[in-house]
Amino acid sequence: MSQKKQFSVKFKMFQHDEVIIFASTMAQSRFFLTSFLLLLSGWLAIGLGFNDSASNWIHHFCNLNTDKFFIHFSWFAEWPLIVLAILIGFYFNAKHGLIYGIGLGIQSVFVALIKNWFNAPRPIEAKLFTIRHIENLKLHHWQSFPSGHTAVAFFCMGLIAISVKNLQKSMTWGITCAIIAAGIGYSRIYLGQHLLVDVCTGGTIAVLFLQLSYQISKKLGYDV
Q1: pLDDT one-digit tens code per residue, 42-88
Q2: Residue 221: which region, alpha, beta or left (left: phi > 0; alpha: psi -120 to 50)?
Q3: In terms of pLDDT, which residue wins out, 54 or 168?
Q4: What secondary structure letter does DSSP report for 221?
């Protein structure tokens, strides 16, 4: 192969790598920025004394179709989303996926410890507002703080936002992932399982653990 052709191939490879690096950086930065703004909005509402009233409004802003949708949407933040995120992480970079998998595991233990420590009452026990009956939904009574589903949602959607490279042409990928995570948090309030403060705390914990996992992976050279 001539020097000119070699240069051309190397230049194209360089361009491709640069696009991937740019896409990965934009995806994670957009995810973190959007998550920060969404969570900040929630914390501002809590700080202004709207924790109970906002939770009450979300819970009662409903109809039968959204009831069914949010039951399934909330369930997605259990094992389906965890398995999907870890598989995506491992698919694109096994070492990268391992770091995030460990981070998610430590986060889950941390959230469980806080839940057990506070053993805070769920909305149905706190009796801050009337909890409506939703068909085919089992309400939990304790360990409300923080929201484990929301923590899983923000961490896993962040992992997906950072990992997926073949959607680099989409400028809204990181934003979309953050909105989906926030939507799962919204579903937990909608279903009467959590208050706004539980959801914001779960999301904040997840963003912190995700950022820590990202920095460790980057320092070890596993992230582009």
Answers
A1: 999 999 999 999 999 999 999 999 999 999 999 999 899 999 999 99
A2: left
A3: 54
A4: T
- For residues 189 and 58, give the distance between their C-alpha atoms in angstroms, rounded to a whole number: 7
How large is the average pLDDT for residues 202-223?
90
User: What is the per-residue pLDDT for 162?
Assistant: 86
pLDDT value for 3 = 47
Residue 171 has pLDDT above 80, yes or no: no
- Where helices occur in 48-93 by DSSP H, the ranges are 51-60, 64-75, 79-92
Integer Cα distance of 188 and 89 in angstroms = 26
Residue 87 vs residues 79, 141, 148: alpha-carbon distances, Å: 12, 33, 20
Per CATH, domain 21-219 is 1.20.144: yes
The C-alpha torsion from 31 through 33 and 34 to 39, rounded to 10°, is 120
- Tell me which residue has tokens 């403060």: 197
Residue ranges covered by each domain of the chain: 21-219
The residue count of the chain comes to 224
